[in-house]
Amino acid sequence: MVDLAHPIPPWQVHPPIALAAEFLAAVQSYLPQPAGDRPTNDGAGKWAAQILWQRGVRSPAAVHAFLDLSQYVPCSAFAFGDEMEWAMARLKQAYMEGEAIAIWGDFDADGVTATSVLWEGLGQFFRQEDTLHYVIPNRFTDSHGLAIAGIEQLAAQGCQLIVTCDTGSTNLPEIERANALGIDVIVTDHHTLPDTRPPVVALINPRALPPEHPLATLSGVAVAYKLIEALYETLPEVPSQPLESLLDLVAIGLIADLVELRGDCRYLAKRGIQQLRQNSRANPPRPGVSKLLELCQRSGDRPTDISFGIGPRINAISRIHGDARFGVELLTSHDVAHCQALALETELANTRRKALQRDVLQQVETRLQEMDLSTTYAIVLADSQWSPGVLGLVAGQIAQTYGRPTILLNTEGAIARGSARSVNRLDLYRLVKGQDALLLSFGGHPFAAGLSLLPENIPLFSEALNRQLRQEQLGLGLMGAAPVEANLQVTVADLGQALFRELSLLEPYGMGNPAPQLLIRNCWFDRAWHKNLKDAQDKTVRYIRTTFEIWDDTGAKFAGVWWGHYKDELPSGRCEAIAELDYNPYKAEHSNDRNGYEIRLIAVRPADPSVAFLGSPAAGRANWIVDWRSPSPPLLDPPLLDPPPLEMRLCPSRWAEFRPWFRQALRDGRMLAIAYKAPATPPPTDIWRDLVGIAKYLSRTGKAVRRVQLLNKLGIGDRALQLGFQSLAPLGFHISLRDVNGEGHLQIDYTAPTQAEKTGGAIAIPPGDLDPTTTAAVHRFLDAVYEEKFRRHYFATVPLTTIQAMAAFVQDTASENPQDPPSSETVNHDGSSVDAPT
Predict the structure, then answer these.
(1) How is residue 601 annotated by DSSP?
(2) What is the CATH number of the domain that holds 468?
(3) Rg (CA), the chain
């Protein structure tokens, strides 16, 4: 059964576009020619052309610029202007005077690769482990960014210059301390800039550039590469290692960090993947990377080899060990035996990470089942047992699933540390930065961030975020899971080499250019099998992978995999699936499957959810829900409809209240009319006084009342009424359930408490004059009433299209289990609601 606070994500399918012949010809010119140099057939290129058009590439010239790497001219490293000039002047001074330099990196894949780029690049100018050192914070004990204790230690070692990578833009107090100790700082970073420029020698950050600039989306490793590129131009006679040898590291960090791959980002990623391929050959330039590719059974020629292979493994080092320093050794050492040992340790860390991530995800899901998500705009949860290394991953999963920004915290020590992830383009950095008075540290960008605060401030922090989203009305757009997009509709027979080669023209994939997702209709699954993964020591890890064959009416079958799911989660009948087409040359060469092609399942649902409406007047119609909220007469005359529509007359305060109406209409085969008006809600304090008056009357007369009568009389919802009962308790009222003619009724009794006796009977005193215990309870009730008032105003004006989209979720679920009772509330045929026994 679908919880409308946790809906099934909507599916968005791009319709095919009729494309001009010259546009299609431009795409076809990049396809590999068939054997015998025969011309490409007329149908080739249509898949790639559709996706290019969807992504704004809509002319032959734009096609050539996007697909032909040789036609792109990358920006000069000195496009950063004076900041890069100042950085070069200071590095040249350090080189000429033999100064001691420290690289200060970060512990994620972007930070580790950025540190590696500076370690190798600056290592051409400064002696490693002599005048050049690097520092990477510990994920478990340190925060992102510079730290005063570490800076003081570097000063004691004689360091005169710090070069940061992937961090440092907002570390103003730490930079001031470095300056006081005689250490200059060059910041290379890509995270959000502070309002005031820090006192550094140079601040090289693409966020200072216009958003449309080709360098604007560089990640930390790409900024570090640009610094080394500028230094190679400044002192060209010094380096002996080609600058291009760093590009494989750049590609790993770029793709792993999920930055938008456009402009120089796309260029560097594509060049970097070409360099990465060399590590799958004999005598690889990076034996550590070569061993990682072997362990994840990849060849290094695909962006997915990074996003699903190398990237997660590098990230796993700090997620499991905290200390990520050996990640730099793994990427830069030429000691083959040492690199193989480090790669095996990295592989073990990644398998442990998967198990921990699954455990924490299950625990978070359990906690969310106990929350009222209809009034929750930002999810903030904490636990002392959660592994801090996987909180960002789980927060990302929860944010996407529940459609809300999510912050997960570990509270094991004196300081709570955790990660935040955004959803639906909400600027997370701005949201959390607005509560910086409660934070000890914070850093990141609009989509992801790390933070720390005192555990006792977590409730205040959570309430502040939810209040801010509520006041800005942003939360109302976050109540649904992020949609699943399908770029193309294909058959099982279309899957395979030809389609893959065509789609691979669009690589590298990443943010702004995601891997194409394919919709397969009217299909079914066979030979499904799941098993737990095993680590490099052949130990079972509690992380599931399901393999299967997918079939459709073309008579073709195709292999597939569904990560993190059991085979029982696949529908047993015909269904619709969204998947990505993948190819692994390593698998084709080294396994029994000589094909190497498979699909990676993204989403699946039963086929044709509208079948539940067959035979009803609304069958096959998009307008089975009609809007009668406006003061003008209905568009459809009710007497002319047979059967007449089911009318929803009470304005809801949360999506879950729509569910019984949707399902009642579905079962009865009737249209649903949204016929409620915006309620004229009195001030919350008046409603509280009415509640006290009703309680006094019922306790004095001994009469009982049905819960629905109280709800209708007060004009509030269940949650507010429950809090209202709690506000009555300190005043001496006791609520109990009693049977009247076989139905549950509420009985209210009164016993004056001590405080009420002292004040002469507190029940007549305004909320502000009550004792602290009573006041807190009353204000919780008043806040809930205010929240309902706010939400009812939203639902009084929410577009009909939004309501219809939400109803589609219930249709999907009804087709899965049409006999499932819709909720604890049922709907009478006259449009009123009836409480089920509790």
Answers:
(1) E
(2) 3.10.310.30
(3) 31
Inter-residue contact 48 to 503 (CB < 8 Å):
yes
Nearest C-alpha neighbor of 247 from the set 186, 308, 306: 306
Whether the CB-CB separation of 675 and 669 falls below 8 Å is answered with: no
Q: What is the C-alpha separation between 652 and 237, in angstroms, rounded?
A: 73
From CA 252, how far away is CA 508, in angstroms rounded? 12
Contact in structure between 746 and 694 (CB atoms under 8 Å): no
Q: Residue 727 in contact with residue 664, Cβ under 8 Å?
A: no
Nearest CA-CA partner of 515 in 528, 493, 499: 499
- The verdict on 698 and 776 lying in the same domain is yes
- For the ranges 27-36, 224-233, 270-279, 484-493, which has the lowest average pLDDT? 27-36
Name beta bridge partners: 627. Answer: 674
Taking alpha carbons only, the member of 30, 43, 44 closest to residue 507 is 30
Question: Does residue 596 contact residue 500 with C-beta atoms inside 8 Å?
Answer: no
Domain residues for the domain of 565 are 11-65+484-607
CA distance linking residue 90 with residue 742, whole number of Å: 86
Residue 135 makes CB contacts below 8 A (sequence gap 6+) with 102, 103, 104, 105, 150, 154
Q: Is residue 178 part of a domain?
A: yes
762/684 Cα distance (integer angstroms): 18
In this prediction, residues 355-363 reach a mean pLDDT of 91
User: Position of tokens 């990141």?
Assistant: 444
Residues 6+ apart with CB under 8 A from 4: 374, 654, 655, 656, 658, 659, 806, 809, 810
Residue pair 45/27 in contact (Cβ under 8 Å)? The answer is: yes
Tokens of 372: 């009222």
User: Model confidence over 194-213: pLDDT tens digits?
Assistant: 889 999 999 999 999 998 89
Burial state string for 218-252 with b = 16 or more CB within 10 A and e = fewer than 16 = bbbbbbbbbbbbbbbebbeeebeeeeeebbbbbbb
Among the listed residues 182, 125, 186, the one whose alpha carbon sits nearest the alpha carbon of residue 157: 182
DSSP symbols for 715-778: T--HHHHHHHHHHHGGGTEEEEEEEETTEEEEEEEE---HHHHHTT-GGGS-GGGS-HHHHHHH
The confidence score (pLDDT) of residue 534 equals 61
CA distances from 191 to 111, 167, 174, 725 (A): 12, 7, 17, 48
**Which pLDDT value is given to residue 8?**
57
* pLDDT value, residue 696: 92
103 inside domain: yes
The answer as to whether 206 is a domain residue is yes
Whole-angstrom distance, CA of residue 307 vs CA of residue 43: 31
198 shares a domain with 133: yes
Whether residues 259 and 296 share a domain: the answer is: yes
Instruction: List phi, psi (to 5°) of 833.
Output: -110, 150
Angle between helices 247-256 and 264-276 (to 10 degrees): 120
The residues near 775 (Cβ < 8 Å, ≥ 6 apart) are 767, 768
CB 541 within 8 A of CB 534: yes
Tokens coding 354 = 């998967």
What DSSP line would sit under 68-89, residue for residue? Answer: -GGG--PPPGGGGTHHHHHHHH
All residues at 6 or more sequence positions from 300 whose CB lies less than 8 Å from its CB, including other chains:
273, 276, 277, 278, 279, 280, 289, 293
Q: What is the pTM of this model?
A: 0.68
CB distance 825 to 835 below 8 Å: yes
The CATH number that applies at residue 108 is 3.90.1640.30
For helices 684-701 and 772-797, the axis angle rounded to 10 degrees is 120
- The SS3 of residue 143 is coil
Banded model confidence at residue 633, pLDDT cuts 50, 70, 90: very low
Q: How confident is the model at residue 39 (pLDDT cuts 50, 70, 90)?
A: very low
In the prediction, which pLDDT does 510 show?
81
Query: What residue has token string 């010809």?
Result: 25
